[in-house]
Design goal:
RmlC_Cupin_sf (chains A, B), Ureidogly_lyase_bac (chains A, B), five-stranded antiparallel sheet, Ureidoglycolate lyase (chains A, B), mainly beta, homodimer
Chain lengths: 166, 166
């Protein structure tokens, strides 16, 4: 019997150990463009390391996951942060773990609204993109360059996520 | 009588002198995440220069522009590229100029679809965010750090843009 993980709303406070929530936070707002535009400034930072590395923008198109979903693995990127901003106007799940001696601890599951992106800090364990219900596009800011930027971990006993109620 | 600028569809070919179109280009696709996700790779690059600079992610919320719209000024950023990816599922206008001896030439106007972002190369003249019809949010990737990163130019004779037909 797999352990079923609780699904919590995504908030800046809850996500702080893992990175930043990219949302229109009124406390970060300044007016620009002669008052036409609200700039929510520096909600996240793209960090890349290593010689010959560059910050790149990509689109990820994820197929919806089946539920209940078995979380059998997690991954992390030693050389860069990685951000996901939803372009399709749909909520999605964010699954992250604190590091425990080089392995991911028990995953934490957050339900992100359609107007919330996330930025995983460098080396933060996360599950690959988990979309709900329909194929969904995301703008992804991460890294291109030489070096091994992917580490994967497979759980001996997977965890389960029930279908989230939207 | 102001000169009315034509509005053209945004395409990678037409936009090439100014930067990149950030769209799900099938030629840049590779499957990742065990086949779950299509990654449209490195559609654009964030370029920042200068000591102490970092690549940041922001949200811009633009109020709709009135039409006919008078293009009275253009701006450029000497220290960074700047990308705009629509988060609100709405088309918008992109207004850019080639540089002519340190000043913007006659502006070129592109109608971007809701699924097309743009990345202005460093030092490319552009008009501030031009949304249509309703307030719209964009993910913006640009720069934070010291130094003067804004240059503005005001036309002695503005240009006009008619309300685009969507």
């Amino acid at each position: 019997m797999l352990k079923t993980l609780p699904v919590r709303p995504l908030t800046q406070a809850a996500f702080k150990p893992f990175g930043q929530v990219i949302e229109a936070d009124a406390s970060r707002m300044k007016l620009i463009n002669g008052g036409n535009t609200e700039r929510f400034h520096a909600l996240a930072e793209a960090e890349v390391v290593g010689d010959g590395a560059r910050v790149i923008l990509n689109i990820f198109r994820g197929q919806p996951r089946p539920f209940p979903y078995d979380v059998a693995m997690m991954e992390r990127h030693p050389l860069c942060s990685q951000s996901f901003s939803p372009l399709s106007g749909r909520p999605y799940l964010v699954v992250v773990s604190e590091d425990e001696d080089g392995k991911p601890g028990e995953p934490q599951v957050f339900l992100a609204r359609a107007d919330q992106g996330v930025n995983y800090r460098r080396n933060v364990w996360h599950h690959p993109l988990m979309t709900i219900g329909e194929p969904s596009d995301f703008l992804v800011v991460d890294r291109d360059g030489p070096g091994n930027n992917l580490e994967e971990f497979f759980f001996s006993q997977p965890y389960s996520i029930s279908e989230p109620s939207l």
